[in-house]
Design goal:
about 25% strand, nine-stranded mixed beta sheet, Solute-binding protein family 3/N-terminal domain-containing protein, D-Maltodextrin-Binding Protein, domain 2, signal, alpha/beta, single chain, 8 helices, about 240 residues, about 35% helix, 9 strands, elongated
């Protein structure tokens, strides 16, 4: 018996071949991307699959392009996106655009911020001081901005890694470390969903674009130009 996964993959590859044949002038183009559950930006169980995904779907809908999203753990999503038939992975920070991929224009925006538990004493002048004098939680599979990555390497004994955002929030809530660095909207969403009271924003460090990491091809370079035009004409 053919598995459901194989049927889905075969159907996806059939669509990719179909929409690439010029003879089918009336065929609607379909883009396949991988993603992660990173609510509220992206999520398999969210309405419209998340705010950032919905934004991208709306943009592409102006050209009658359908976006189909498959959700995986982040490292697997990036690996799966290298397979035939996938456009790339989304949403990604620019630092997470791997070799062999190119970045689209910003589809949406996120923040990288420091969060803490209420009543936690906090005093630092920069990222270096934060890691030197405090304990910091990070998500293992994320590629953070360079200043954070370098500070984490210099003070490894003060860094605590979590495999995902939920564990990061739970460890912060349990005071396993003093601070956590992630997007505050994501942390806030998880804290509310899992009743983790007392987590609060300390300071925002960076505003980061969320891009599609697209496989580097001439066809996708043309698609990037299309996305630029769609963003410029969007309300």
């Amino acid at each position: 018996m053919v598995s459901a996964w194989k049927k889905t993959k075969s159907f996806r590859l059939f669509l990719v071949v179909l929409i690439s044949i010029p003879h089918f002038a009336t065929a609607k183009e379909t883009w396949f991307v991988t993603s992660l559950n990173w609510q509220p930006y992206s999520g398999a169980e969210m309405i419209n699959e998340g705010n950032a995904v919905q934004r991208l779907k709306s943009l592409l809908g102006e050209q009658s392009i359908t976006l189909l999203v498959e959700f995986y753990p982040w490292s697997r999503a990036q690996k799966q996106a290298t397979e035939t038939g996938y456009l790339g992975y989304f949403p990604a920070w620019p630092e997470e655009v791997r070799k062999g991929f190119i970045a689209s224009p910003p589809i949406a925006w996120s923040e990288v911020a420091v969060l803490k538990m209420e009543n936690t004493q906090a005093s630092f002048s920069d990222v270096e001081t934060l890691f030197k004098d405090g304990t910091v939680g990070l998500v293992r599979t994320y590629v953070y901005p360079e200043s954070i990555t370098q500070a984490a390497r210099r003070y490894p004994d003060n860094v605590f890694y979590a495999d995902n955002e939920i564990l990061l929030a739970k460890k912060l809530h349990a005071r396993r470390h003093q601070f956590a660095i992630t997007d505050p909207l994501v942390m806030g969403y998880i804290a509310e969903k899992h009743s983790l009271e007392g987590i609060e924003l300390l300071t925002s460090l960076y505003k980061k674009p969320l891009v599609i990491a697209m496989t580097d091809s001439q066809e996708n370079r043309h698609r990037i130009k299309l996305i630029e035009k769609l963003i410029q004409s969007a309300p």
